[in-house]
Amino acid sequence: MTMQPTTAQKLWMYEKMVTSRRFEEAIARIYLEGKQPVFNMANGPIPGEMHLSDGQEPCAVGVCVHLSAEDVVTATHRPHHQAIAKDVDLKRMAAEIFGKQTGLSGGRGGHMHLFDPAVNFACSGIVGQGLGPAVGAALSRKMQGKPGVAVAYIGEGAANQGAFHEALNLASVWKLPVVFVIEDNAWGISVSKMTSTAVPHNHVRADAYAMPGHRVENNDTLAIFAVAGEAIERARAGDGPSLIEIETSRLAGHFMGDAEGYRPNGEKDALVAKDPIPAFRRHILETGEAGEDELLAIEKAASKAVDEAIAFARHSPDPEPADALTGVFIEAKPQGADA
Amino acid sequence: MTTEVKENERKLTIARAMAEALSQEMRIDPRVFVMGEDIGALGGVYGNTRGLLEEFGAERVRDTPISETAFVGAAVGAAQDGMRPVVELMFVDFFGVCFDAIYNLMAKNTYFSNGSFRVPMVLMTSTGGGYSDGGQHSQCLYGTFAHLPGMKVVAPSNAYDAKGLMTAALREDNPVVFMYHKGLQGMGWLGTERGATVHVPSDPYEVEIGKAAIAREGSDLTIVSVGIGVHHALRAAEQLEGEGISVEVVDLRSLVPLDREAIRTSVAKTGRLMVVDEDYHSFGMSGEIIATVAEHDPAMLKAPPARVAFPDVPIPFARVMERYCLPDADKIVTAWRTMQLRERT
């Protein structure tokens, strides 16, 4: 019997997906300010690279619905949906993406380096490099006898990184409470999974490390919920790590400004037609678990939260430029174990 | 001198001193654990984890697969989650397979998170050549690590400092790269600089990270070095003393933070600066130390500064070639003679 979400869990997942999508839409709009007609990444209120997560929301919510603040998530260079599903403070996250003083890290990190200790959320902008830290966090919990699992998100391209194979092996050898989640959007920037990966799907690689490997097709929120729930339960029970590969869709380009000329004709349209958020909305209406009014209220609340976060970011002050020189090291003397 | 205590003398090798610091801290701090290749039953290839497995068991003294990316990365994750991991990178030369975990995660997450994540971990790694191990097992790479912001870097020249720096590193809230020179470890099979094996108090103590020591006082020439270079400098100083030259030897002990004040104070006194560095000549520690003085007040220098460093070539295998390249006391004396000539002209 596969695991089924409660109505409350479904509505939570829907709310987070909508929040994430509204957030990305707002970021995309503001990102282009100052970048038109000539696109220069350095200009506008949000400079730098921008990797949007439109379409990949089910991977975030279907996994994170099983987590609480104490659980650890290491995220990727495309982290917004994962952060929102992990309940990272939306205002401070937006402010960090804008590079503001009120941001999660006072503007030192930016959109690929979101850190929120309150919910144990961290990122790395380098492909596959959140894997080791997730294994270490799981080791820490196991050694301390503390509850909590670690989830390492990666893209399908990262499964060809040495870090992936080292981390899976280590987690399995030490039987650690980790779940490795691959968001397979089929493209590593412009190189397709087909041309870069020796196996059709990466979940089979779990066999090499003596752990369960699951594949979820069709960006299916409910199927992700079931598979992730099982893997997380297994990790919590002390039975070791699992690997999950989710077929998802990257509805934005690799980064903003990516013309995506490498995609076959029609591929993008087909993906948009299968947008997981309207699909999940229809599902909720069909099962009668919520009515139109209730979903509209959720959508309105999500938009409001995003608007407030964006306004907070826009109206926050820039950091003091010279503060760039602070924060490299923790200055205070630490507390000893016996202090 | 850091080690003048004579009563109840208890001489330890650097390897034993490191192991003692680790075990003493592990007794009082359950967050401290060690992982790396061959650090369990073997006690570390260089002996610095000997006895730990027996005392603390395999849970806290973890032999790892040969997966540096995974276990250095795991140390970052464990440190961020409240542990105090100590990881061993068997040879510093191996950093190439795991540097992302070191310089992009370990060193940067504190800054990226504005201090809301802490990475209190010690990365200990062996450095140095002189025993024909070839160019992938003999480097120092001090400058590589010290160049990149976010990690403290220490390199002791003797067992007293090794224990104190290790204890300080284990109590530090920042990542510390602990670079120990193979030629100082006291492993019989490697050949050991005797001067590194000194009295070590049995009680725990800290040597402040970022504070240099004056290994020998003098008034005519300041030699700044670290690790085994300090011993070459001391030997050269003795030789030059016979010629009436008084050499001051500054043992940096830490590269990050760099004790620029100690360097400038010494050069203000002697007026002459030489840097001895087993790391590569260019773009490294030796240039940084000379810049420390030159930017501050070049008028302090009575002669152009000199450096005795490893030439900018991969480390050769053949004994005669490697010796030709490695700094030693004779090369320091020769460099002093050149300095004198340049001072007169």
Please describe what this structure looks like.
The complex is a heterodimer of chains A (339) and B (345). Chain A contains eleven helices and eight strands. Chain A has 339 residues and is an alpha/beta fold. Chain A has one domain (7-314): 3-Layer(aba) Sandwich (Rossmann fold), CATH 3.40.50.970. The longest helix of chain A is centred in the N-terminal third of the chain and has 25 residues, at 7-31. Chain A is globular. Chain B has two domains: 11-199, Rossmann fold (3-Layer(aba) Sandwich); 213-344, Rossmann fold (3-Layer(aba) Sandwich), CATH 3.40.50.920. Chain B has a seven-stranded mixed sheet with strand order 3-2-4-5-7-6-12, sandwiched between helices. In chain B, α2 links the parallel β2 (32-36) and β3. Chain B has twelve helices and 14 strands. The longest helix of chain B is centred in the C-terminal third of the chain and has 16 residues, at 329-344. Classes of the chains: A alpha/beta (339), B alpha/beta (345).
